[in-house]
Each structure stands twice: as C-alpha cells, then as structure tokens.
Amino acid sequence: MPSSTVNGAGSNGASVQIPVINLSYDPSNPDASALQLVTALRPDWAEPGAKVEFKRFTDGITNTLLKSVNKREGESKEDIDNEAVLLRAYGNGTDVLIDRQRETQNHELLMQHGLAPELLARFSNGMMYRYLRGTVTTPKDLRGATGSKNGTSSNDMVAPNKPPPNVWTVMQKWLHALPHETEAERSRQESLQKEFHWIIEELSQRPSLGEYGLVFAHCDLLSGNVIIEPKAAGSSDTEESVAFIDYEYATPSPAAFDLANHFAEWGGFDCDFTVLPTRTERREFIAEYIKTYFAQLPNKPADVDVDSEIDKMCGEVDAFRGLPGFYWGIWALIQATISQIEFNYAEYAEIRLGEYWAWKAEHTGQRKKNGGDLPVREKRWAEEEKA
C-alpha cells in the first residue's frame, strides 16, 4: 500500500497528493511485481472478479512500459481503457542519465496545464500514470505531419549566462558519466569533452526564443512519445490531435535543438537519413511552431515579424542539426555499459556520433577542403522540396 504522499498539481492547478508506493518493479519477475504495484494503487483490482492483464510496449530502448487493465466482465473496451494504468519502470542505471526528481516536477507542471497524463503514483524505480487513449505514431507518421495543411554544482557554469538546469548541463553530466576504466575509454572521454567545449563556444550563445534563449523542451520527441488521440464520435474534424508523453529528458533548451532533435527522429531508430525532412518540410513545420509560440506567449510584442522569425528559426535549426547526434551518441555510450535491454547501443552511438562529425565537417568546410563526398544525411538535409 502507499506509505507516503508528495504534493503535486492537478489539472486545475490545485495541490494534490501523489501516492508513493514502497515497492519496486522487478524485471526478473515482471508480472508478479507489476501486479503488486497496480493493486497497491487500485486495491479493488485484487478483489474477486478482477482480471488484470499487462501489455508490454516495446517502442522505447530505455525503460520498461506496461499497460495494465482490469477486464471486468460486461465492460466495453473504452471503459476498460479509461481505467487503464501505464506503469513505467526506469532502465537499469538510468539515474546517471536522468534527474528523476526534475522529471517528476516537469510532469506535475505539465499536468497542471493539461499537457501530460495524470500522474497516479510513484514507486522506488518508476511511476504510474493514467493511460492516454490513442495510437502511438511511427517515424512515418512524423514525416507525414507537415503535410496535413498544405545537474550538479560542477555543471552550473557550463554555458555562460544560461541558468541551470539546461540541455548543456545535461550533456556535461553525461560526459562525466562516460566509462573511463581503460586508457581507450579515458582518451575518448577526454576527446569528447574537448569537443563539447567547442560546441559550447559555437552554439550556446546563439540568439533564440525564450528568456536566456531557452524554452521548455521535450528533448525526446521520437515517434513512440507522440500519441494520435481518437476523434470524438461523430466528429467531422479532418485534423488529428496529438499528445506527448514521457518527459524524462525535458529541460530548458534552445528551441532549435528540440526541433532539430525531432527532425532527426523522422528516421527512427534505424537512422534512415533518406527520409529526413527537406528544407520545404522543415519550414512548414517551423512556421506552425513559430505561429503557435507567439500566439501562446504572454504579453506578445505588438511588432512581431512572423516571417522573419520563421526565417531565423530555420537558420538556427540548420545550425543545430548536428547536435542531436552528439547528444544521443554520448547517451548511447553510457547505455552500452549499464542497460539490460537487448539493443546494440555501441553501434547506435557510432551512428549518432557520425551524424555530428558529418555536420561539423560541413560546418567548418573541412569536407569540401578534403574533397570528400557529401554524406547521405547532409545531402538530404540540403534538399529543397518534398519527396
């Protein structure tokens, strides 16, 4: 049973009590431990007549995500889904990568504004929240979206004038956490740290939206974290609504990084560079982002030149297009040493870091100077029209 509570925020902004359950999810005994957790949250699911089932989602490569339902006799699928619970157990060792306290605070803040599903309970190595009905997108869905309308104190000073936490302090934390047991590992850590200093000088002080050039960013908008919500019965609306989930990497960040990171996910975990958005597709997406940003901005300036802001953001996203490769590359190097999930993190790290090196060679002119061919990703990024 829940042994304590923490204060949170409800959808109307009121303070709520979020149960904390003193139990853990055990990946070696998944169903039994998951059942313990959901029945601690919902004691009636342990009563006679309850039929609790679990469905494992496999889209992610970090955490365990289970949908738990109670298939009571006589209830419709919609009724069952409305009571369903998502159980997310953190991947082994991921506290090295993710500030779990900040993740919870982010989730509670987003709940307050109706931007995240209700957080039902926390447990020692995860959380449970209300299931969001809808369809998980695929990388192909992300690519189709634009066509719908014709830290610690040692990290505090990573990027000058950027109050922590932010995406820069996150990357510095990850660099400190890189494996360094062997001489080869220490050498690579030193090399990537040196590279990060160059990135900070090159990108961290560029002009951007938001105070200090930072906005609240999801930082992991891959297809599995975008849900297409079901339309109301009888609705004639031709547009689809989406919701976002899993804010564990959310932190203040340049808007251009969050956008470039999302565009990189059009290729999925396979990193298919041939389907990344062209200039035209990126501009369509960015135009909607900019218009929405200024529409939602309190005390919006009266003289906003929207077209100029779109042009500037397109340029900034171009400048940031290599950073997601560095970000997820160092993340994957850590995952390769701590994760118990069957995924080739080492290979993934090399692919993602390769994106960064290809961008840098183009950015500095080194590729042209050496007479090398334009890499597939950079070639696709430079294409103008939709495929």
Summarize the amount of helix as a percent range.
Answer: 40-55%
Widest sheet, order of strands: 1-2-6-7-5-4-3
Outline type: globular
Helix-strand pattern: EEHEEHEHEEEHHHEEEEHHHHHHH
Q: Could you name the CATH class of the largest domain?
A: Alpha Beta
Distance between the termini: 54 Å
Computed Rg: 22 Å
* Mean pLDDT over all positions: 89
Number of β-strand runs: 12
Biased composition (Basic and acidic residues): 375-387
Biased composition (Polar residues): 147-156
Enzyme class: transferase
Pathway: Phospholipid metabolism; phosphatidylethanolamine biosynthesis; phosphatidylethanolamine from ethanolamine: step 1/3
Task: Provide key terms for this protein.
EC 2.7.1.82; Kinase-like_dom_sf; globular; ethanolamine kinase; seven-stranded mixed β-sheet; 2 domains; alpha+beta; single chain; Aminoglycoside 3'-phosphotransferase, Chain: A, domain 2
Task: Describe the model.
With 387 residues, this protein is an alpha+beta fold. It has 2 domains: 2-131, no CATH class; 139-382, Aminoglycoside 3'-phosphotransferase, Chain: A, domain 2. The protein has helices at residues 30-41, 77-82, 100-112, 139-144, 167-177, 183-203, 255-264, 279-296, 306-320, 323-338, 345-363, 366-370, 376-382; strands at 2-9, 15-21, 52-57, 64-70, 85-89, 119-123, 126-130, 135-136, 215-217, 226-228, 242-244, 251-253. The strands form 3 sheets. It has a 7-stranded mixed sheet with strand order 1-2-6-7-5-4-3, sandwiched between helices. A hairpin with a 2-residue loop joins strand 6 and strand 7 (126-130). Helix 5 (167-177) packs antiparallel against helix 6 and helix 5 packs parallel to helix 10 (323-338). It is globular, with a radius of gyration of 22 Å. The protein starts with a strand and ends in a 5-residue tail after the last helix. Residues 9-14 and 147-155 have low confidence and may be disordered.
